[in-house]
Predict the 3D structure of the following.
Amino acid sequence: MGTKAQLDREFLDELQNELARYRPRRRGLDPEILRILAGAILKRSDPHTLLAGEGRGWLRWAEELLSFIARRPPESILVKISPPVEAEPVPYSVLSTCTSDQPFIVDTIRLCLQQREVELRDQLNLVVPAGRGPHGRILALGGEQADQPLESITRFEIAPQEDPKRREALEEEIRERLKLARAMSADFRRMLRRLKDVINQYEFLLSLHPERREEIREARSFLEWVADDHLVFMGIASLGQSEGGRLGLHRMREDPFLHSYPDSRAFARARPNPTRTLTPARSSIAPGTSRYVCHTR
């Protein structure tokens, strides 16, 4: 009996042989691109996943994913949720996405599913170089050419989504969340530079108000801590005092990251306290004011 490493190697060799013998069922799929995509799935999946569907499930996933990503216009974000798939032990739907690689893709999708109370059962995230034609048709995958940007391809198994309207609404919400995640990532360095500019201004402020030395140094120390990769800005919400003196929703912009607060209704009914804290975001707001809230990841 061989060692675990030897058994793992034999298992992978068997799957590689299966991949070499496999022929696409769908028309129009490039066999070489399919082989590369299936190989990437093979490297990122656990044995239990690879053994599903009589050991060929992962190859069918590769076909489905390749059909899904076959055409992606520049800068677009592909999102698709399948009708329920009959499988053992329970049915599931497949959520697939494809976009230019960026930070927070998986976190953004998982947070959306959690807030919408959609059970997540399994996930796969691939980051691969992809070459595309002028209209977004995929021409190459997994190459090392400098002109092939990285793309993120995800596959989530989620609780069955039977209602077509609900699937469409969830697709659109995830797409919009990923758009704002992209904007946040693209603007991150600019925001960080502006924050550091503000930090540097505190030295000048200290020369003008030496009597506020302790307060100014405390504020600068906090901003330096924020700039040191402790926080990630993921959205804003503005709250204020409602009519009748109660602390309530003054204005809420539904950002795509954190807008379904479990205690938002209770928060709106509460009378003013010195400070109320919102969860799950570690944020606070003084009553009777309208302020921006910085959410942490």
Notes: The chain has four domains: 1-69, 71-186, 188-230, 238-285. The longest helix spans residues 164-186.
